[in-house]
Amino acid sequence: MSKGETIRNHTVSKTLSVPLRFIGAQELMSTAPNAYSGFLAKRGRRERLVERFNLPNKAIFNDIKKWRKRFIIISQGCVYIYDKEISSRPHQSFPLYGYNRISKMGSDHDAFTFRLEGKNGGGFKIYYFSTATDEERKVDLHNY
């Protein structure tokens, strides 16, 4: 998150086992209790693939290597990842149930990079995020 952007904290009334699939970011923020909303950088499939091939540090590859800025909403025990704050449906969404580890990691991207992992591997996808400050990285997802 850059300076001037805010994080909204609210009380969660119930936890969903399956995220809502067709809900816009603005609609979710206005109708569902939001535990967290804001911008994070996210490493996706494209970035992992590029890193695996260890491409040379040339200008042509720099754009491909950049982590994408995404609008994240954590509400009712689910994570919603939107392309923009005004997107009409999530790019990705998943329930937080089963995710129990947030690990700080060193990264080329920046010092405030972390990964979200499930219980003992357990077939859970690992998500990689980066924040602008260490305080944002320390958000306790177990409260949501």
UniProtKB/TrEMBL annotation:
<feature type="domain" description="PH">
    <location>
        <begin position="33"/>
        <end position="144"/>
    </location>
</feature>
<dbReference type="GO" id="GO:0017124">
    <property type="term" value="F:SH3 domain binding"/>
</dbReference>
<protein>
    <recommendedName>
        <fullName>PH domain-containing protein</fullName>
    </recommendedName>
</protein>
<dbReference type="InterPro" id="IPR011993">
    <property type="entry name" value="PH-like_dom_sf"/>
</dbReference>
<dbReference type="Pfam" id="PF00169">
    <property type="entry name" value="PH"/>
</dbReference>
<dbReference type="InterPro" id="IPR001849">
    <property type="entry name" value="PH_domain"/>
</dbReference>
<dbReference type="GO" id="GO:0007165">
    <property type="term" value="P:signal transduction"/>
</dbReference>
<dbReference type="InterPro" id="IPR035848">
    <property type="entry name" value="SH3BP2"/>
</dbReference>
